[in-house]
Amino acid sequence: RYTPCDECEGTGAEDPSSVITCPECQGTGRIRKMTQSGFGTIIRESACYVCKGTGQVIEKKCKVCNGSKVVPEEKMIHVNIPPGVENGVHLKVQGAGHVPSVNAIPGDLYLGIRITNNEKFIRRGNDLYTPTNIDIVTAIIGGKIKVYTLDYKENKITEKELPIPAGTQPGTEFRIKNRGVSYMRGRGRGDQYIIVNIEIPKKISEKQKELLVKFRELNK
């Protein structure tokens, strides 16, 4: 953000005597231009082009701010992000914006929120989706797998055991209630969906091949 220059105390001048009355507008900050027309004299008033409407000009500019009266300031601040904040939301941080002049009230800072997915969770609204691989044997006969989920009591990512029924097909979704994202406006949370992908091994041993052949024969 920009704040008043400490070197010149926000005047923009090397010293106070360098600030003089604008010779063009005589300190009014406005200039008048008269033109004649068939209807009479037309007077147009506008901001002075020399002093930019301030009524003053600087003969010797501050060497730090070069007459701009303000300098950039970097400041680290802590911002509270509400649970369930949505993509594209703008959060207002009061008093963290520009300070245009000495004794001026600071403006506000608006932060645009952009939410990115990670390797464990994909967010869709308030629901979370987690693609998970399981082996073909577990898909056929069933079993248990461990999946990542959100533990709101401990405020961390943890593992949870998920039962897989026999005969699970690729793309099957298993829902874990209330393990999604908190609603930003209201109570409750979304759900988490575990999307199953069945891994087919690229290489198998001779023994495994024999067993699979027997399995195929049994299914005839």
Automatic annotation (TrEMBL):
Coiled-coil regions in this chain?
none
| GO biological process, alphabetically ordered | protein refolding
Its protein name is CR-type domain-containing protein
Question: Which key words tag this protein in UniProt?
Answer: Chaperone, Metal-binding, Repeat, Zinc, Zinc-finger
Record GO cellular component, one term: cytoplasm
Task: Name the Pfam families on file.
Answer: DnaJ_C (PF01556)
Q: Which SUPFAM superfamilies match?
A: DnaJ/Hsp40 cysteine-rich domain, HSP40/DnaJ peptide-binding domain
Matching entries from CDD domains are given as: DnaJ_C, DnaJ_zf
Output the PROSITE patterns linked to this UniProt entry: ZF_CR (PS51188)
Tell me where the signal peptide lies.
none
Sequence ranges assigned to domain CR-type in this UniProt record: 1-74
* Listed GO MF terms: heat shock protein binding; unfolded protein binding; zinc ion binding
Gene3D superfamilies this protein is in? 6.20.20.10, Urease metallochaperone UreE, N-terminal domain
